[in-house]
């Protein structure tokens, strides 16, 4: 399942088994701030959050955006996956 950017709702979405996991953000210039990640309880423990984070961050990289991870999940994902640390806004 692909991660889709929904600009109208300011979030990335991943639909799995009829449920939608989301990573909400705000965008200011070339800086994207992840504010909240939500995975429905039905999808818990299946790696959906990590798949969502990876897809969102890959999209951010392709758009040449910098990241501020206010969401604890996205922050932890970046800390665990060194290949995304260069995206952090300083």
TrEMBL record:
Residues 4-89 form the N-acetyltransferase domain. It holds the Pfam family Acetyltransf_CG. InterPro entries: Acyl_CoA_acyltransferase, Gcn5-rel_NAT, GNAT_YJDJ. It comes from the Bacteria. This is N-acetyltransferase domain-containing protein. It comes from Variibacter gotjawalensis.
């Amino acid at each position: 399942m692909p991660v889709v950017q929904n600009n109208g709702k300011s979030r990335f979405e991943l639909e799995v088994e009829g449920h939608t996991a989301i990573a909400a953000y705000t965008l200011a210039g070339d800086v994207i701030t992840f504010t909240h990640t939500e995975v429905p309880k039905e999808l818990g423990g299946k790696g959906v959050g990590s798949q969502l984070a990876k897809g969102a961050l890959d999209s951010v990289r392709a758009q040449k955006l910098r990241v501020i991870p206010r969401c604890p999940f996205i922050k932890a994902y970046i800390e665990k996956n060194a290949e995304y640390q260069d995206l952090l806004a300083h």
